[in-house]
Amino acid sequence: MSKKTTSDRSGRGRNTGRRHPLATVALLAIGLMTTGGAYAAVTTAAAADETASPAVTQSTIDEGQVLFDANCASCHGLDAAGTENGPTLIGVGSAAVDFQVGTGRMPMARNQPQAEQKPAQFTDEQVTALAEYVASLAPGPAIPDEEYLQADGDATNGAELFRINCAMCHNVAGAGGALTQGKYAPTLRGVLPQHIYEAMQTGPQNMPVFNDLNLSPEDKADIITYLKYIEDNPAPGGFRLGDLGPVAEGLFMWIFGLGALVAVTVWLTAKSH
User: How many helices (H) and strands (E) does the chain have?
Assistant: First the structure.
């Protein structure tokens, strides 16, 4: 009796420790799901990195330094600290370089009161490399984020801010205007949103700096929205007279309006005789 009992107990013990036939299948399924999930996460992150703006690398900075030494150092110095022919670039940030070089204002063709816009002399990649090199020298205003350049802000608020801060030089319609000593405020028509933002941010030429304490990034985006709105929507009142404001409109009335009245008066007087 005792042997049989012992045999039965050992048999039950072996049956209890045996795996279920579906256990292996379940383990394989869990392993596959874990591996597949990890692979999906890694590939998604890689795709996101590829679509995002490329990170600044040392090779980009080195390329920018080579370009700077060859094209800019003669005026700004090999260390970008400035010379008698050009100001220091320490602390101007990537935004200033992207604006000046991206709009063709730099390098200047000749010494003159103001750097004129002309076709850019460098590719977009070279402009980025120059900007990142100068930005690596010291902190400064950075190239703006895309979210502020979509021209989908509040055009009404942008119009009010533009009239208060910018219209006295650029004209209420952004057509530009003359300043003193051969300087001028350029037209803002056809200017890229990125360059408009950078100009407000860095204050090129004779323009004051509108930092984020003066005009928030949202305010700058609203101004860009207003400028793009008036650029895309022609004046509903008819001929705009160059958008030069009340002087041009008053001159038009003096020449054509009063001239027409004088002509009518002469004609009526001649007819009465």
Answer: 12, 2
DSSP state, residue 178: E
DSSP helix/strand/coil, 240? coil
Q: How far apart are CA 140 and CA 91, in angstroms?
A: 5
- Give the three-class secondary structure for 185: strand
**pLDDT tens for each residue of 24-48:** 666 666 776 776 666 555 444 444 3
Specify the residue for token string 């010291």: 138
- Residue 240 token pair: 């705009």
Choosing among 2.60.120.260, 3.90.226.10, 2.70.98.70, 1.10.760.10, the CATH entry for 146-233 is 1.10.760.10
What CATH code would you report for 58-137? 1.10.760.10
Computed over every residue of the chain, the mean pLDDT equals: 82
193-202 vs 93-102: helix axis angle to the nearest 10? 130
Q: What is the pLDDT of residues 48-76, one digit of tens each?
A: 333 334 567 899 999 999 999 999 999 99
Q: Rounded to an integer, what distance in angstroms lies between the CA atom of residue 266 and that of residue 261?
A: 9
Q: Which of 186, 162, 164 is nearest to 175 (CA)?
A: 186
Q: How far apart are CA 167 and CA 162, in angstroms?
A: 6
Largest CA distance in the chain: 155
Positive or negative, the CA dihedral 191, 192, 198, 201 is: positive
Domain boundaries, the chain: 58-137, 146-233
Burial of 135 (0-12, 13-18, 19+ CB in 10 A): buried
